[in-house]
What we know:
- By secondary structure, this protein is α+β, with helices and mostly antiparallel strands.
- The chain is built from four helices and nine strands.
- A hairpin with a 2-residue loop joins strand 6 and strand 7.
Amino acid sequence: MMKPLSRMILVAVVLALGLVGQLALRAHVQSAGALPVGQLSQPLTALPLELGPWRGQDQPIENNDLLYADEHQQRVYYHTNRQQALTLWIVYSGQGADRGHHPEVCMAVAGKPEDPAARKTLDLPGREAPVQQYRFGRPGDYQWVYYWHYTLPVPAHDQLSGIQKFYRSLRQRPASVTVEVFAPETSPDDPQYLGEFVQLVDAAMQPLVGSDAVLGSHRQPVTLVAPQP
């Protein structure tokens, strides 16, 4: 039989090896957090001021409470043929902080109830996921809202092991861009014109977010997205 001293030494060695293995595993998974976040290919200011029949004008962001991410862009676009104006709000966050703001919550806080009958999804050409359409307010004071987002791929995703990918998905949200369109209701054909504007914005956003960005409009938190091969 093994002597007590030898048994104690063996136990100590096993515990030491276990501790070393645990520290090595921790260092391995945590190194995934040191990778850079997804970046915009171009700044949000690069979005064209002319989108089809719409002409844009940058608007200052006077409320500092709205500055909750890395880049913000606020513009008013005017339709050249219709007496209609809308506001475009775009936010980029390297940590996915933009996804914590959603019109269903923000409009409710502003005291504008949703008209559930007007909620629908808007399919975009060549897109697997739709844009979400809402209408908030009360009769005589309705506002259309269109909401969608882009999840940016994680750089060096292919260099991560399976456990590193899992750890990163739990601890670090990928970069994300949220887009919202706000327009007062003016006529029954508003959704047609606003839907066309949404398509123009999505097309113009491609050079900014990159071809690997994934469009969506769900409210779930951002998830890990790998670059397309």
